[in-house]
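diguanylate cyclase
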Amino acid sequence: MSDKATILLVDDTRTNIELLAGCLQKTYNLKVAMNGKRCLELAESEPVPDLILLDVIMPDMDGYDVCRQLKDNSSTKDIPIMFVTGKDSDEDEELGLQLGAVDYITKPIRPAIVTARVGTQVILKQQSDTLRSMALHDQLTSLFNRHYLIEAANSKVARIKRHGGTLSLMMIDIDYFKLVNDKFGHQAGDTVLRAVASVLSSGSRKEDVVARFGGEEFVVLLDDCSILDADDKAEQLRSLIEQLIPEGISVTASFGIAELDPDGETFEHLLARADQAVYLAKEQGRNCVVQAKSELDIKED
């Protein structure tokens, strides 16, 4: 994959596209849209643009409407937008910036100005992406962190309650991890954590959320996955972890799995049931998978 940033050029006039491309094609990967609808499609397709250069005056949907839709879409709201347009009044520029654009360039296009301003915005976007990634990922394992997990889980639960579907949660706790640290040292413990994280990450789908929950605990959110499928997946992962020998250290883990009850159950309840199942797995001798009790059973207990 190229390390070049990707820029989406949007203009209904081919000569304007060719002029912009001439300024930028040696430095960036370019995607081109000749209307607003195509812009919205390309903004969500891989590779996702790092910056959009957007004309205002276009047929069917003008640039202002395109900008509004991009900013209202959670998948595209963080893509910076630069208007490149012949509308040069103060009111037009003010509107563009109020809609969320990071810059407003008026035509006729001056290649040196476009190149400089695009370069600045690409650097800012890359810095922002780096900071966002650091805020959402665990530094040791590179998995998502607890903060991101809770945010993503609440969003998934809300979606399922509105539109239906299934969601299962898998909680994993490394067995006897304190003894690993005490016997082999914390650096060896970190190696074990990274090895387990690698198994969980490589064994999961793109739509799943794999997170380090804290200490030696991990959580995997499984989209469109029943408790039976989650049980099969957990058993596969348990077996793979058992085969790990990082730095000559034998590793096993205990698994608790639970499926969301969409009739009123929150993520906190789902997590608590999976956590209780992990506790039962520990009681049953560790290195096993236990399905959680239903929420009703927990209340009766």
